TrEMBL record, chains A, B:
PANTHER family: TRANSCRIPTIONAL REGULATOR, TRANSCRIPTIONAL REGULATOR, MARR FAMILY. The keyword Transcription applies. The chain crosses the membrane at residues 12-31. This is Transcriptional regulator. InterPro entries: HTH_HxlR, WH-like_DNA-bd_sf, WH_DNA-bd_sf. PROSITE patterns: HTH_HXLR. The keyword Electron transport does not apply. Pfam families: HxlR (PF01638). SUPFAM superfamilies: Winged helix' DNA-binding domain. Keywords: DNA-binding, Membrane, Transcription, Transcription regulation, Transmembrane, Transmembrane helix.
Length: 105, 105
DNA sequence: AATAGTGGTAACCTAAAAGTGACTAATGGA
DNA sequence: TCCATTAGTCACTTTTAGGTTACCACTATT
């Protein structure tokens, strides 16, 4: 018989965990078009609160998908951008979207 | 400026919602190898409880990924199988796993 | 009369994620 | 003097997914 299975070992699970958060895909999409300041992201995703946006950005940063650059100015100025690793995700996301168009519409 | 973005419109979000549940990938994996009865799935994924297995199966069925065939016997006998739509997902999952191997290891 | 076998349900609990609203630091400008 | 600005934090509540345990129907077998 097959071995017992455990989802912790699943490479698909591990991969979608990178961008599976409630707002992460949208954030990645926004940053894929341009480096953006915190407030610029908020304007483009108005339904997200500051707290949650901060959390999602921190997680994306921790996973190496985006970078955070803080300029020591006042008022504060922080720029977020995709890292190379983050950019490497884009073709995969495009594949997923293409699968949807083909199989669901 | 770009339109406001809402994650409900995101094709990637819609797609991963199909298999993003806690145990769905594992269930799909099990069924990709063979049609299985409820109890056979349980044995292969021992960490999942009956209640949650039932829930996940119902959702997969509602999304059209698997089929449920009940034989009117006693004791009960129910067989779950991938639908064609469910099978169409496999190449995509393989792509995602391949991306992981290439970009993460 | 009791038990095993199968595919569930019902009632309840818990932890994590997400959401809300008020608040802050530090400066320039009116 | 007071406000605007920016990128947050803090304390709190709500929502949701998932988990636990007990129980059920119906028959064949012992």
């Amino acid at each position: 018989m097959e071995n017992e299975l455990d989802h912790a070992d699943c490479p698909v699970t591990a991969t979608i965990a990178l961008f599976g958060g409630r707002w992460k895909l949208l954030i990645l999409y926004v940053l894929s078009r341009n480096t953006r300041r915190f407030g610029e992201i908020q304007v483009r995703i108005p339904a997200i609160s500051k707290k949650v946006l901060t959390e999602q950005l921190r997680e994306l940063e921790a996973d190496g998908l985006i970078s955070r650059k803080e300029y020591k100015e006042l008022p504060p100025r922080v720029e977020y951008a995709l890292t190379d690793f983050g950019k490497s995700l884009c073709p995969l996301l495009i594949d997923i979207a293409a699968w949807k168009r083909k199989n669901i519409g």
